[in-house]
Specification:
The protein has 233 residues and is of the alpha/beta class. It has one domain (6-232): Spore Coat Polysaccharide Biosynthesis Protein SpsA, Chain A. Helices cover 40% and strands 14% of the residues. The protein is built from nine helices and eight strands. Strands 5-4-1-6-8-7 form a six-stranded mixed β-sheet, with helices on both faces. It has a two-stranded antiparallel ribbon with strand order 2-3. β4 (48-54), α2 and β5 form a beta-alpha-beta unit. α3 packs across α5 (148-155). It is globular, with a radius of gyration of 17 Å.
């Protein structure tokens, strides 16, 4: 059996308005971006990674990071996220079976859950999966998965600004056209735990949780963090 290939496309930019330069904020002597990236590299089912940032000058930070760590990088449109993703995918000039969209403001992603999701995506031969759509697990535990051919097809359509920026919505608004993976996720059910980095309050909370998880193995962090959340909420 030929092994399926999985590509992670890491989306990142530095001009956030609510929390300026948020990906440069520090957690355990790493920037939030480095912290996220380190966790992403612990996903066993991801074969390759490319950073997809914008052409803005203030995103040179990611170029330096990519160069230092010998990571592939692509620069493209800030507003048309779909085009940036598809162009980054095409720039590698290889075929992949799954694209994992790495939103780098999800600082505390759980590698073992992402690996589980990739396996389920392949088993069901799905076109799309979003852990954010019904929000049953903590918001920021996993990442959205796409079948690359579907992304490329959609990118050729005339789309509204909404879909160019939030491609998930196109799949969710056109459910009959795609095979969408749905998961019960009873083991990690905790819909009120939000781990996306948008505000200073988010930063303090994520840093608090990261410190609590420091001595817990990666494979156990998903269940342990839910316990920590319930204890301190």
């Amino acid at each position: 059996m030929i092994k399926k290939k999985v590509l992670a496309i890491v989306l990142c930019r530095n001009n956030s308005t609510r929390l300026k330069q948020k990906l440069k904020l520090k957690i355990q002597n790493l920037s939030c971006f480095e912290f996220f990236f380190d966790r992403l590299t612990n996903c066993k089912n991801i074969d390759d990674i490319i950073i997809a940032t914008t052409n803005n000058k203030n995103d040179e930070y990611f170029v330096r990071f990519a160069k230092k760590n010998k990571i592939k990088i692509f620069r493209g449109s800030e507003s048309n996220v779909l085009k940036r993703m598809v162009d980054a995918y095409k720039s590698i000039n290889q075929n992949f079976d799954i694209i994992v969209r790495g939103n780098s403001d999800n600082t505390l992603i759980m590698p073992n859950i992402i690996d589980e999701d990739v396996n389920d995506f392949l088993k069901t031969k799905s076109d799309f999966y979003s852990p954010f759509a019904e929000n049953k697990i903590p918001f920021g535990y996993s990442l959205t998965l796409f079948k690359p051919t579907k992304l490329v097809q959609i990118s050729k359509k005339k789309l509204s600004k909404k879909y160019k920026e939030h491609i998930d919505n196109y799949f969710l608004d056109n459910k009959k056209k795609f095979k969408i993976l749905k998961k019960k996720q009873e083991k990690y059910y905790c819909p009120n735990l939000f781990l996306t980095l948008d505000t200073n309050f988010d930063y303090k909370r994520i840093k608090f949780y990261a410190n609590k998880l420091k001595r817990i193995s990666l494979n156990n962090q998903a269940t342990e963090l839910i316990k920590i959340y319930k204890k301190h909420r």
